[in-house]
Amino acid sequence: MSTESSYYVPEQSKLPIITATGMGILAFGAASWVIEGGSPTIFLIGLLIMVLVMYKWWSIVIDENMRGLANDQLKKSYVLGMLWFIFSELMFFVAFFGALFYVRVFANSWLGGEAAIGLFDDTPTDAAAANNQILWPGYQAEWPVMVTPDQMANGEDAQFKGPEQNMNFPGWSSLLSWLPLWNTVVLMTSSVTVHIAHTALKNDNRKKFNTWLGITVALGIFFLFLQAEEYIHAYQHMGLTLETGIYGTTFFLLTGFHGAHVTLGTCMLLVQWLRGLKGHFSNDDQFGFEAASWYWHFVDVVWVGLFLFVYVLA
Amino acid sequence: MAHGPATLADGWVKYASRWLFTTNHKDIGTLYLWFSFAMFILGGSFAMVIRAELFQPGMQLIKPEFFNQMTTMHGLVMVFGAIMPAFVGLANWLIPMMIGAPDMALPRMNNLSFWILPFAFAILVATLFMEGGGPNFGWTFYAPLSTTYAPDTVNYFIFGVHIMGASSIMGSINIIATVMNMRAPGMTYMKMPMFVWTWLITAFLLVAVMPVLAGAVTMMLMDINFGTSFFDAAGGGDPVLFQHIFWFFGHPEVYIIILPAFGVVSQIIPTFSRKPLFGYSSMVYATASIAFMSFIVWAHHMFTVGMPIAGELYFMYATMLIAVPTGVKVFNWITTMYKGSLTFETPMLFSIAFVILFTFGGFTGLMLSIAAADIQYHDTYFVVAHFHYVMVAGAVFSGTAAVYYWLPKWCGKMYDETMGKVQFWIAFIGFNITFMPQHFLGLAGMPRRYADYGLQFADWNMVSSIGAFMYGAAQILFLFNVVRTITHGKPVDKPEVWEGAEGLEWTVPTPAPYHTFEKPPQVK
User: Fold this and answer.
1) Best of A18, A23, A119, A122 to disrupt the B interface by mutation (most B CBs within 10 Å)?
2) What is the pTM of this model?
3) Which secondary-structure segment (H or E) carries B413?
């Protein structure tokens, strides 16, 4: 509830309309790019506008805060804004996790002619069996889907052919050469280091803050490097691509969007690190950094879900 | 502090830059309202094309392919371009005034959320003029119609939906932050006007489900262009998965549309009954329960798709349960009117029509929720009639009521009551002539989204089309009445425009000054 006697309402601003224009060009450009024969030019123009305007916008917000224009109430609005933004990001991942669960629990077994998970009765129905025999003869439900229904029914003519290998846990003997495990270690560690940096900032230990935040950014970049390695390995040596049926689809989309969010989070932390080096923040005013660290913890939590449901639990 | 608003007298550059660069919640509210009305006319003209083609059996005016684009674009433009922005416009105008705040919590982001919309809809509408035509797969864009069999322009649709969703999410975050953080001292949650409550809950629904919609269109994009198989059984996916994800967004979406309408009516009925709203706290709890339940009933849109019997039963009973909190609301509106000293100004007429017709649409919804019976009703005109009773007589009627109710506060002038009443009766009668017969058509087996129909459906289709033109004409009258109020309306100068009106927005001068509550009021 409002306790302030007055509230900072910004003057007119050109930023929103430029941002909206950039977004419009970006969206239009993206669509015309993906259509066959399209070029990325318009998309890149939109992207450039977006990058410049976001740089400007955040500079102004930081500047307003440094000049003391942002009172406690406005700061709380920023806090609420960031928290609900993270919630919306979480719901974006819910859609993809939902797709993964639906495919693993329902769709796959139906394609294989089994009944739905039997809440009351799990004997396969005639319809389910006929569905399998007529449409996808020979397909048996398994996860990861290594042989697609298409492949079973149409052999070499199939549009979707399964991968040669998958990313699942390879067994205890090759545990240490399993990349996802190291990815997990790197990301978990970075969550701890960002927390150490936060505590250091609260205690006004600037040097420690700069060091540990720098380490966090480095770990973020290292994570992205490892994931790029994993993708290259998948494409070149495992026959695992976007086009290899539902396993490749869910694997790349879930880890890919997570990777995109790690990239965003790393950029956020990098900016906060540069701000820290410039002497921004104080022990009681550090929301830019806190927001970035919340985001970082959020991508960490999503990774735990990914690690469990995409890699470990087969 | 920002200066006063530029007017046309300051030159058109200053005047245009006022609207382009504004951070004022009233300006942005006005922009939202005019934009949504423009989209309402556009979507309405698509509907007129549909009804003109269906006036008689056989193909007269347009080709079936274009008919498909018309049904699709009508739905998309009305849901995302007309109804949702209309209520966001009302939220912008009213929430800060109702809770005693100087503006929205994040004014620049507020302007951004609005200005994304013209770009999103320009992209969407531009597809109509592109090779392959606009989206032709129905507003629910089921895969594989929207993936394997879609025109190339579907990509424009996908990215249009993306930025429109970004606009909605930012707008909702702004509303949540405003309500949670900007209330005047003493304005506790349980003292907030119902409109603010319903919007707070709506904003929560939006933040929760718009990202899911973004996920759905992203999966489409990948399936179309990058060889994934989310919605293709050949690769191990499932087209039905699309429907689950879509309706996980889509069912909360219908409450996103109707909850602010509930809020509007809960403001208007007490005013013209000269009685406080009956059962305020039960209204709040009912709204919250409806919102919660909207997340767990989505597959009632999919009874015929082939679900396990356990799923059919669960979704049927869960859906029926929503009738309970909805019934609480209807009961409260009626009880508010009971023994009140009622007058029937235009906003009240639209509100009473809302209560009656929305309840009617609710009952047909209850019929549709019966899984066994729905197999007969599914994808027929019965469904079309049902959701137009709640979308048009629900959301649009309450939006119209809201404009008449708050217009004097916004522009300081009174609308023409006679013209308002004439508009109401044309709209009310036209609406019922349009959609009541569609129940009969649907029960007799006429499928929705078809450009042609069997001869046995000819009579009621003609009646329905006549009603639709009547309802369309009423909107022209509405536009005329609003414009005339602004230019020639009788000035109102007392703060409380209506004698029975309660709430902080009626304590500020009329017309509402550009900046209100720079010093927060004390709420007892």
Assistant:
1) A23
2) 0.95
3) strand B413-414
Residue B448 known to be catalytic: yes
Domain limits, chain B: 21-220+237-506
Annotation says B488 is catalytic = no
Which residue is it, tokens 């705040």? B101
Domains of chain A: 10-70 (1.10.287.70), 73-314 (1.20.120.80)
Per-residue pLDDT at A63: 92
Rounded distance between C-alpha atoms, residue B121 and residue B38, angstroms: 11
| B310 chain-A contacts, CB cut-off 8 A | 116, 119-120
> DSSP secondary-structure letter at B490?
E
Q: What backbone phi and psi angles, to 5 degrees, belong to B442? A: -65, -45
The pLDDT value recorded for residue A183 is: 95
The structure tokens 């406005």 sit at A74
Write out residues in chain B with pLDDT < 50, as ranges: 1-2
Cβ neighbours of A76 in B, within 8 Å: 181
Selecting among B329, B378, B386, B409, the annotated active-site residue is B329
What are the backbone angles phi and psi of residue B177, rounded to the nearest 5°? -65, -40
Beta bridge partners of residue B447, listed in sequence order: B380
What does the DSSP assignment read for A49-61?
Answer: HHHHHHHHHHHHH
Task: For CA atoms A204, A207, A213, A219, give the dihedral sign.
Answer: negative
| Rama region for A198: left / alpha / beta (φ>0; ψ in -120 to 50; rest) | alpha
Confidence (pLDDT) at B2 = 44
Q: How far is A129 from chain B (nearest CA, A)?
A: 14
Using a CB–CB cutoff of 8 Å, tell me whether A266 touches chain B. Answer: no
**A138 at B interface, C-beta within 8 A:** no
Distance from CA of B92 to the nearest CA of A (A): 15
Could you identify the residue written with the tokens 């699309």?
B242
Q: Do A246 and B235 touch (CB under 8 A)?
A: yes
Distance from CA of A201 to the nearest CA of B (A): 27
Instruction: Kindly name the residue from B27, B232, B253, B312 that is annotated as catalytic.
Output: B253
B270 close to B500: Cβ distance less than 8 angstroms:
yes
Contacts of B166 in chain A (CB under 8 A): 23
| Per-residue confidence (pLDDT) for residue B340, from 0 to 100 | 96
Torsion angles phi and psi, residue B248, rounded to 5:
-65, -35
Rounded to whole angstroms, the Cα distance separating B103 from B138 reads 39
Is B119 at the interface with chain A, CB within 8 A?
A: yes
Q: Answer whether B104's CB lies under 8 Å from B25's CB.
A: yes
ipTM: 0.94
B436 touches chain A (CB under 8 A): no
Match 């409550």 to its residue by tokens. Answer: B197
Q: Which two tokens stand for residue B351?
A: 């509100």
Would an 8 Å CB–CB cutoff place B222 in contact with chain A? Answer: yes
If chain A, 314 residues long, is cut into consecutive pieces of 10 residues, what is the mean pLDDT of each piece? 57 93 97 92 97 96 88 92 97 97 90 68 68 89 92 91 90 87 96 97 95 98 96 96 95 97 97 94 92 97 95 84
Q: Report the top-level CATH class of B21-220+237-506.
A: mainly alpha
Of B273, B280, B155, the C-alpha closest to B218 is B155
B306 contacts on A by Cβ (under 8 Å)? 127
Q: What is the pLDDT of residues A162-220, one digit of tens each?
A: 999 998 888 888 888 899 999 999 999 999 999 999 999 999 999 999 999 999 999 99
- Distance from A205 to chain B by nearest Cα, in Å? 32
Q: How many CA atoms lie within 13 A of A122 on its CB side?
A: 5
**CA A282, A285, A288: angle at the middle one, nearest 5?**
105
Beta bridge partners of B490: B414
Q: Is the backbone peptide bond immediately before B437 cis, with ω within 30 degrees of 0?
A: no
A20 touches chain B (CB under 8 A): yes
Q: How many CA atoms lie within 13 A of B444 on its CB side?
A: 15
